[in-house]
Amino acid sequence: MNSDVKLADVIDGKAFAAGLRGRIATLAARFEAEAGRKAGLAVVLVGEDPASQVYVRSKGKSTIEAGMASFEYKLPVDTDEATLLALVEQLNADPAVDGILVQLPLPAHLDEQKVIATISPDKDVDGFHVTNAGRLAVGQPGYVPCTPLGCLMLLKDKLGSLSGLEAVVIGRSNIVGKPMAQLLLAESCTITVAHSRTRNLPEVVRRADIVVAAVGRPEMVKADWIKPGATVIDVGINRVPGAVEGKTRLVGDVAYEDVRHVAGAITPVPGGVGPMTIAVLLRNALVAAYRHAGLELAPDAI
Ligand SMILES: NC(=O)C1=CN([C@@H]2O[C@H](COP(=O)(O)OP(=O)(O)OC[C@H]3O[C@@H](n4cnc5c(N)ncnc54)[C@H](OP(=O)(O)O)[C@@H]3O)[C@@H](O)[C@H]2O)C=CC1
Ligand SMILES: Nc1nc(=O)c2c([nH]1)NC[C@@H]1CN(c3ccc(C(=O)N[C@@H](CCC(=O)O)C(=O)O)cc3)C=[N+]21
């Protein structure tokens, strides 16, 4: 490793997210004063996956701390499709609910696409509905998936203009990779979307000024894949065995300890993209509330 050169700047997503939640809380209080009700976010969890339970609890806590109303629905793992769809329809019709999030993945017997398609696009604060994916693709206002929007906020905060930069997104999921590529394209980056069939991935990644890793493979992205000085955004959340037997630890998709000797800036895991996802979810729910109430919110307010 080039241990004589400067280490990468650490992009502190946790701190940035805390600032964002502070601005959201101010605007949530203004919303309550003007609309006469709190902005509301409903979160639906089917089953008892421990990781999902942690996220849902954390979302509920952050929602209340921001001065918004949190509605949590926990359904048993064997819930049938009709019951889940009926709940979504009920939330679509509920004027106290501005945003709806159905925690993914769903148990295998439930059709995720069908559930997402049932959420009203104007309450789809995850930005997963095909209407919002289409709006993003053609540059119309809508809801943008929280994780990629959080990544973009960190990138713009660090780099300012992204115009003309080479960006390589590793991963092409509808939730992270594809919307990330759309956002970077809208910022006038030259984008490459890599995936499991990409030939010579290290060489492709080496041309990037910006690398976004959203793969789900622990520490896959190595130091010699990174152009010196590049900005590296690590979306991966992977639980691996820890130093103490029976304990696990969280690692990203990037070999952080090595890559920070080469990159110019890098997000850590934990404390990078993850906290941004939740803060942006609150942002999207608050934007939804302002829109539903017909109140003005400046486009760059949050
Ligand atoms: N921090 C956060 O808030 C969030 C973190 N995550 C994390 O981000 C990661 C990605 O999530 P998600 O997009 O939902 O995952 P998916 O499993 O849906 O997508 C993974 C993508 O990685 C690609 N891929 C898999 N193996 C390789 C490989 N060897 N080389 C290159 N590409 C590969 C796949 O390619 P192909 O399409 O060809 O199969 C696919 O496009 C996960 O670790 C997840 O936990 C996700 C959401 C939020
Ligand atoms: N409908 C839906 N929308 C989602 O946005 C959604 C989802 N389903 N299913 C699961 C993924 C994953 N996700 C994360 C949120 C926060 C952290 C997060 O806060 N991570 C902390 C660490 C948390 C820990 O210690 O486990 C961090 O990176 O610092 C991570 C991942 C949202 N997702």
TrEMBL record:
Keywords: Amino-acid biosynthesis, Histidine biosynthesis, Hydrolase, Methionine biosynthesis, Multifunctional enzyme, NADP, One-carbon metabolism, Oxidoreductase, Purine biosynthesis. PROSITE patterns: THF_DHG_CYH_2 (PS00767). NADP(+) binds at residues 171-173, 237. It catalyses: (6R)-5,10-methenyltetrahydrofolate + H2O = (6R)-10-formyltetrahydrofolate + H(+); (6R)-5,10-methylene-5,6,7,8-tetrahydrofolate + NADP(+) = (6R)-5,10-methenyltetrahydrofolate + NADPH. Residues 11-126 form the Tetrahydrofolate dehydrogenase/cyclohydrolase catalytic domain. HAMAP family: THF_DHG_CYH (MF_01576). Belongs to the tetrahydrofolate dehydrogenase/cyclohydrolase family. This is Bifunctional protein FolD. It comes from Novosphingobium pituita. The gene is folD_2.
